[in-house]
TrEMBL record:
Residues 463-548 form the AMP-binding enzyme C-terminal domain. This is Acetyl-CoA synthetase-like protein. Gene3D superfamilies: 3.30.300.30, N-terminal domain of ligase-like. InterPro entries: AMP-bd_C (IPR025110), AMP-bd_C_sf (IPR045851), AMP-binding_CS (IPR020845), AMP-dep_synth/lig_dom (IPR000873), ANL_N_sf (IPR042099). Keywords: Ligase. It comes from Cylindrobasidium torrendii FP15055 ss-10.
Length: 569
């Protein structure tokens, strides 16, 4: 089928200008601010510290002036390596408004991964939390701590320095193509790459979101919530160093009045205490965290803790239908939205329209929605040809929110840029496969790199995973499928499953439950999709922080075990 267009109105093209202004200084939002123009924007869950909307903007302006006085210049790239904290959005927006790119470094990186990131991006200064400070940092990097630490310059010390005469009192003007931040990819197929996100990308993504939000407000006026300030309360537990949380908790935080209760890092027990304590109304889940809720041993306690939640958005990775249904049963009062995005598209590419918009849109089970405003798409086969409607193909995207590419000039980066961006006349390859129906609804199939060829036929690991999770007795709570050696040729891989059992599954006993699940798959799938690589019971399925299954880790451990076993023969 030809190019696919978004059913939404087209946003205006991005113009030159600082993205901080687009996020926090929009005239229509300044007029509509809550009550006297102020409200609680952030709360630190750990210590209860609060920061109002006006207080946040003042903190950003003061930090910008202090950074400018301390020699933070547009030619620099500033690193930020920290768990969630109040200072994170302040530092991010201070650098953004100063026109200084921020490299968002995940705080959980190993020394090897950190060394790779520092070798990819020439960071001159970095702000770190207590844990991240303990890395062996190169001498050429100026290290600053977010909290006061002996022997290091802290953020508060930088803030206390008198402003110099050339300090930047105003938000610095930027070009639309200037880099705003560098987001390190999750690296599911190798070491992380630094994604270049521009000021224009951010501004355009905001316009995209506002088109859908305004349409929703026309159909369903903003809801009244029973919170102390009458505005939604969001539990902010996803890592701000990743795209989903960065935009939800930091970049879009000022577009409509909301209070974000910051949880430093995800902890299920802390979250279940915080939600009823604060009366949390909005939560954003990735699949791995939702799975913790639906498999919690005390489902009644979880359901009671989630009673205040009214809106829940799911993203970060594919959200299985069964998992979504089970999560909805825990929160029957909540609207559960779903979408698809990636850092290379700034954030969102496909999303379920708010109910009633687009002429009465109704979500379809299994669909992640329609194209976001201003985007074009194609679905292609392995030969690069467009596939017909209803046929699975790789998703290609085009639009102003598609980033410029990966940062760096190494051969590896150049190869990645040429194979991902500007493909076939300006398209970006997502590496994800979808189908689309006549109404423009997209249905995720699998990752291109995860797809197996068995006897010349394509096998989707995701399809097998969904079959395992759909066992009528609910024997499995998590499943991962990947290709392992064992085919008819040296290069062929066959499906193998790693399964986390439910309590009911454990009760059957190991051999019985394995036989039952293997037999169930054989009854539901064509023979070439059978688990010829076996089925293994595991205690957990490894995932990255955004919830994507790390299949390569499972395969590597399995292959290493096999190699060791053969070596003993």
């Amino acid at each position: 089928m030809p190019s696919i267009f978004s059913p939404w109105p087209q946003p205006p093209p991005p113009l030159d200008g600082n993205a901080h202004l687009a996020a926090f200084y929009r005239p229509e939002h300044q007029k509509a601010l809550w009550k006297d123009g102020d409200f609680t924007l952030y709360v630190d869950l750990q210590n209860g510290q609060r920061l109002s909307y006006k207080g946040f903007l003042e903190a950003v302006a003061n930090t910008r002036r202090s950074l400018s006085s301390s020699g933070f210049l547009q030619g620099d790239i500033i690193g930020l390596m920290s768990d969630n904290c109040l200072e994170f959005p302040i530092l991010f927006h201070a650098c953004l408004s100063l026109g200084v790119p921020v490299a968002l470094i995940p705080p959980y990186l190993t020394p090897r991964e950190l060394a790779h990131c520092l070798g990819t991006v020439m960071i001159t200064k970095v702000f770190v939390d207590t844990q991240s400070r303990q890395h062996d940092w190169p001498n050429y990097i100026d290290l600053y701590t977010i909290t006061a630490t002996d022997g290091y310059t802290s953020l508060s010390e930088v803030m206390s320095r008198p402003a110099s005469s050339n300090a930047s009192n105003e938000v610095v003007h930027t070009k639309k193509d200037d880099i705003a931040y560098l987001m390190f990819s999750s690296g599911t197929s190798g070491l992380p790459k630094a994604i270049k996100v521009s000021h224009g990308n951010i501004s355009y993504s905001i316009e995209q979101m506002l088109i859908t939000a305004r349409a929703a407000a026309r159909v369903n006026p903003p809801r009244k919530v029973s919170t102390p300030e009458g505005i939604p309360l969001v539990l902010a537990f996803l890592p701000m160093c990743h795209t989903y949380a960065l935009h939800t908790y930091c970049i879009r935080a000022g577009l409509t009045p909301k209070t974000f209760v910051i949880q430093r890092k995800w902890d299920l027990s802390d979250a279940l205490r915080a939600i009823p304590k604060y009366g949390i109304t909005d939560v954003n889940f990735v699949p791995s965290l939702a799975a913790q809720l639906v498999t919690h041993p005390d489902q009644n306690a979880v359901r009671e803790a989630l009673q205040s939640v009214r809106v829940s958005a799911a993203g970060g990775a594919y959200f299985p239908i069964d998992l979504k249904r089970r999560l909805q049963r825990l929160m029957p009062q909540a609207y559960l939205a779903e979408g698809y995005g990636l850092s290379e598209a700034t954030i969102t590419a496909i999303n379920q329209p708010p109910p009633g918009t687009l002429g009465g849109y109704k979500s379809i089970p299994g669909s992640c929605g329609v194209l976001f405003p201003g985007l074009h798409a194609r679905l292609i086969d392995d030969a690069g040809n467009d596939v017909p409607q209803g046929t699975i193909g790789e998703l290609l995207l085009s639009g102003p929110n598609i980033v410029q590419g990966y940062y760096g000039d190494s051969e590896e980066v150049q190869r990645a840029n040429s194979s991902t961006f500007h493909v076939d006349g300006g398209w970006m390859r997502t590496g994800d496969r979808f189908s689309i129906d006549a109404a423009g609804n997209f249905f995720f199939a699998d990752r291109v790199k995860d797809t197996l060829k068995v006897s010349g036929l394509q096998v989707s690991p995701l399809e097998i995973e969904n079959v395992l999770l759909a066992h009528p007795e609910g024997l499995a709570v998590e499943a991962a499928v990947a290709g392992v050696r064992g085919g008819r040729t040296e290069d062929e891989r066959v499906p193998r499953a790693w399964v986390v059992l439910s309590e009911r599954g454990h009760a059957l006993g190991h051999d019985t439950v394995v036989a039952e699940l293997v037999g169930w798959c054989q009854s539901q799938l064509s023979k070439y999709k059978w688990l010829r690589g076996g089925l293994e019971i595991v205690t957990h399925v490894p995932k990255n922080p955004t919830g994507k299954t790390l299949r390569r880790e499972l395969v590597a451990k399995y292959e290493a075990r096999n190699l060791a076993a053969h070596a003993k023969l």
